[in-house]
């Protein structure tokens, strides 16, 4: 039995469900298969930045700020590896404490450790 893949916090372009479905499943129309894997979330102590000339953002550690996104729990190691493959050398996987949000946008009280792709200044 293979180990359960580590969850991670996604923000930016991967929050677009058709893109996420394409990356994980290979078909952009299968967003309904992803919904059980996602929970609205926020990570504190980081700021999301736009990158000049690029279509994707960067998260950089920044005290007192937070980044909204999703907690994603991949079902398979293959799904996790597919998403890891999208991130280039400009990002570093960093453990973060992710606060889960309810449908109302308020914290549920659940805080879960997950990986976060943090921008590495090059």
Write out key terms for the chains shown.
globular, alpha+beta, 122 residues, single chain, Hypothetical upf0131 protein ytfp, 5 strands
User: Can you give the helix content as a percent range?
Assistant: 10-25%
Pick out the low-confidence regions: none
Radius of gyration over all CA atoms, rounded? 14 Å
Question: How far is the first residue's CA from the last residue's CA?
Answer: 39 Å
Largest sheet: 5 strands, mixed, barrel
In CATH terms, what is the architecture?
Roll
Structural class: alpha+beta
CATH topology: Hypothetical upf0131 protein ytfp
SSE string: EHEEHEE
Strand count = 5
User: What is the strand arrangement across the widest sheet?
Assistant: 1-3-2-4-5
Instruction: Give the class-level CATH name.
Output: Alpha Beta
Total number of distinct structural domains: 1
Number of helices: 2
* The CATH fourth-level homologous superfamily: Gamma-glutamyl cyclotransferase-like
Shape: globular
Average pLDDT, to the nearest integer?
A: 89
InterPro entries: AIG2-like (IPR045038), AIG2-like_dom (IPR009288), GGCT-like (IPR013024), GGCT-like_sf (IPR036568)
GO molecular function: transferase activity
Protein name: Putative gamma-glutamylcyclotransferase
Pfam family, one: GGACT
């Amino acid at each position: 039995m293979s180990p359960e893949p580590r969850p991670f916090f996604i923000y930016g372009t991967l929050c677009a469900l058709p893109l996420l479905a394409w990356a994980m499943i290979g078909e952009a129309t299968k967003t309904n298969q992803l919904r059980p894997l996602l929970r609205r979330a926020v990570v504190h102590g980081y700021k999301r930045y736009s990158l000049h000339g690029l279509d994707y953002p960067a998260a950089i550690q920044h005290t007192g700020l937070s980044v909204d996104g999703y907690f994603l729990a991949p079902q398979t190691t293959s799904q996790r590896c597919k998403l890891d493959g999208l991130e280039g050398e400009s990002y570093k996987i960093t453990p973060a404490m992710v606060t889960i949000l309810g449908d109302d946008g308020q914290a549920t009280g659940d805080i879960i450790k997950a990986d976060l792709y943090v921008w590495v200044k090059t």
